Amino acid sequence: MTLPADHPSHALRAAGSPMLAACRGDGGRRHTPVWFMRQAGRSLPEYRAVRGSGSILDAIADPALSAEITLQPVRRYGVDAAILYSDIVVPAAAIGFGVDVAPGTGPVVAEPFRTEADLDRLVPLDPKTHTPYVLETVRRVVAELTPMGVPLIGFAGAPFTVASYLIEGRPSRTYEHTKAMIHSRPDLWHELADRLADLAIASLRSQILAGASLLQLFDSWAGALSPPDYERFVLPHSAKVFAGVADLEVPRIHFGVGTGELLTLMRDAGADVVGVDWRVPLDVARTRIGERHALQGNLDPALCLADWPVAEEATRDVLRRAGDHPGHIFNLGHGVLPETDPAVLERVVDLVHRETDRSR
Amino acid sequence: MTLPADHPSHALRAAGSPMLAACRGDGGRRHTPVWFMRQAGRSLPEYRAVRGSGSILDAIADPALSAEITLQPVRRYGVDAAILYSDIVVPAAAIGFGVDVAPGTGPVVAEPFRTEADLDRLVPLDPKTHTPYVLETVRRVVAELTPMGVPLIGFAGAPFTVASYLIEGRPSRTYEHTKAMIHSRPDLWHELADRLADLAIASLRSQILAGASLLQLFDSWAGALSPPDYERFVLPHSAKVFAGVADLEVPRIHFGVGTGELLTLMRDAGADVVGVDWRVPLDVARTRIGERHALQGNLDPALCLADWPVAEEATRDVLRRAGDHPGHIFNLGHGVLPETDPAVLERVVDLVHRETDRSR
Fold it and tell me: Is the distance from CB of A68 to CB of A50 less than 8 angstroms?
């Protein structure tokens, strides 16, 4: 299928959305688009004011609250894209796998995935019944964003990163149980990853059909893998996710941390845009992925905790290294740190827009 | 100065130590040497039997115990090098900075380094008075190892990695306070890093003069930095450490995790051997560092938790990628994981020795 004629992405493209233009390497964009991973979150006082102290999964299940949180950074920063306020474990939690998000820790699973029997806990996602609140949030957000000319990014966790939470049971530095399963039980691993690919596809399709204009697949922890292991055990499943949404023809961003050696593989999984953290300078990343894809990144979020001249110089350095290539989306190399002063991010947005302004 | 004529490294070199030969790219070595980071530790039942439950700093301060622990993996595995049982925060703790190592957590600092006033807490290290137990452990270990033809690796933490603990106060994923200081207070950062370089130099020199035949500088967390930041703020201080021991003419290994983009800079800091984690295949690492230096690595330690055929294939892959270059030291890409079955590591050692045997 293709997107219906009244999908907001058509209007946004016609209106010259810099974000949608950059994803396609369109040189006619007004300026380099900028948004920030985790731009909606604890760094914003208006977020802390509405968020309360309950579980993030409860907040995500409240469309009025989630829509408000999604929109806050657009209003404050004038970023070129919103990203849905959600979490990569939402689909797994919604189908009843037994995932929670512990404040200050992250996703935790009381009974981690270990054997074939656990596959039964991974039933197919029916977005209309399992995550109707996500669709309602998307609709509310898009109704506000489209007149502003700003697209919404839908997202999902990639099979490896979601699997790492389900298998480890909590955030890990070594991913040792996951790697042990990948290698000792490749049959079980592939079955698990295949089901998580289906979960991601169902979730992404529903977000797009509800109004999101592009998507990001978060394989945040794929950088823990060697390139041969990534290629053999992970890439096929992420490629399935990208292939599973290809007919919708929305731009696809593929992001992970510490993925310097994986950039070409992550590109080849089917992405239009490859996200890069700050460890790989963008000019180096460009030599790896070539001229035909867009890059997203890559200011070190920790530098936004320093004084403005530091963030300013680092922002300018990112722009210099991105060069004249029209396929650049300015972002941090990872999520906004909670202690970040929003005033610094405001200035980053202004600087990127000013320095790359093509309307003059 | 140069090493005294009776320093054990002369005898070990004359006896054809594969470890010392590989560090210098000497093609005449008997086989590719192998040792494992954290080979002395919780994965060994004989370690758990002697270690007790007290602080690791107390264990390190007991030369009889530390020497025994250092020697255990040499006896069990027949590795080609021992590494001193110690910790990178030992010098800072010994001069009274106020560092402890919390079981299950890592180094913790009750009063983190934040201002100029904290510089006064970093007095020069006098190894004979501050860490006499380290020197005694080295002497005991070397007395046993030298007749076996096995060299001892002395080590220190590099200024960035040690500073990250002193500044963050505990292990960190983001190093945000450290990066903020680097950029907002470069004067204070450089003064701190310079003192930590002096600390590392004093510690390394004392270990070598007591009998260690080579050294490894652990900049475990340097991979958190972008290459420009590493080059400007970290490399000069690590280079000072290497320069500060150059006259002793022992091989110098430089190691960090996630340092794919930093390998040439870490080489240029003054290392003879560049350590590589599993994220960068060794053939790729070789193209980055060139032919004139040795490489150490890089089996993913998590693969040693899988079944033997998995570890076997991964070991063979490392050897294939290392190729014929005489400058290869087989190691894991990071430390042995506590859950590792020692039988797997035994087989890795045997396999590396057998596959690279040149005595036939």
Answer: yes
Q: pLDDT of chain B along its 360 residues, tens only?
A: 889 999 999 999 999 999 999 999 988 889 999 999 999 999 999 999 999 888 899 999 999 999 999 999 999 999 999 999 999 999 999 999 999 999 888 999 999 999 999 999 999 999 999 999 999 999 999 999 999 999 999 999 999 999 999 999 998 989 999 999 999 999 999 999 999 999 999 999 999 999 999 999 999 999 999 999 999 999 999 999 999 999 999 999 999 999 999 999 999 999 999 999 999 999 999 999 999 999 999 999 999 999 899 999 999 999 999 999 999 999 999 999 999 999 999 999 999 999 999 876
Among residues 179-238 of chain A, which lie with CB inside 8 Å of chain B? 179-180, 183-184, 223-229
Cβ-based contacts of B224 with chain A (< 8 Å): 279
Task: Say yes or no for a CB contact (<8 Å) between B339 and A280.
Answer: no
Q: What is the sign, positive or negative, of the torsion defined by CA atoms of B107, B112, B116, B122?
A: negative
**CB-side neighbour CA atoms (13 Å) of A272:** 22
Alpha-carbon distance A109 to B266, whole Å? Answer: 39
Interface touch A337/B176, C-beta < 8 Å: yes
**Taking the CB of residue A323, how many other CB atoms lie within 10 A of it?**
10
Pairing of strands A152-157, A214-218: parallel
CA distance A197 to chain B (A): 24
Q: Which of chain B's residues have a Cβ under 8 Å away from the Cβ of A184?
A: 306-307, 310
Cβ partners under 8 Å of residue B356, min gap 6: B31, B32, B319
- Are B179 and A300 within 8 A, CB to CB? yes
For residues B40 and B75, give the distance between their C-alpha atoms in angstroms, rounded to a whole number. Answer: 11
Chain A contact for B260, CB < 8 A?
Answer: yes
Q: Does B168 touch chain A (CB under 8 A)?
A: no
Does residue B331 have a cis peptide bond before it, meaning omega lies within 30 degrees of 0? no
SS3 of residue A299 by DSSP: strand
* Complex ipTM value: 0.93
Catalogue all structural domains in chain A, each as residue range(s) with its CATH number.
8-355 (3.20.20.210)
Residue in this structure with the two tokens 């430390």, named with its chain if needed: B335
Q: Which of A184, A224, A279 shows the shortest C-beta gap to B223?
A: A279
Residue of A nearest to B305 (CA): A180
A205-218 residue pLDDT tens: 999 999 999 999 99
**Nearest by CB: B176 against A223, A280, A305:** A305
3-class DSSP state for residue A300?
A: coil
Catalytic annotation on A87? Answer: yes
| Chain-chain contact of A301 with B174 (C-beta, under 8 angstroms) | yes
Distance separating alpha carbons of residues A280 and A239, to the nearest angstrom:
23
In SS3 terms, B160-206 reads as: HHHHHHHHHCCCCCCCHHHHHHHHHCHHHHHHHHHHHHHHHHHHHHH
Query: Which residues of B are designated catalytic?
Result: 38, 42, 51, 87, 165
Question: CB count, 10 Å around CB of B111?
Answer: 11
pTM, rounded to two decimals: 0.95
Of A225, A281, A303, the CB nearest to B227: A281
Contact check, Cβ <8 Å, A179/B306: yes
Element (H, E) at A229: helix A227-229
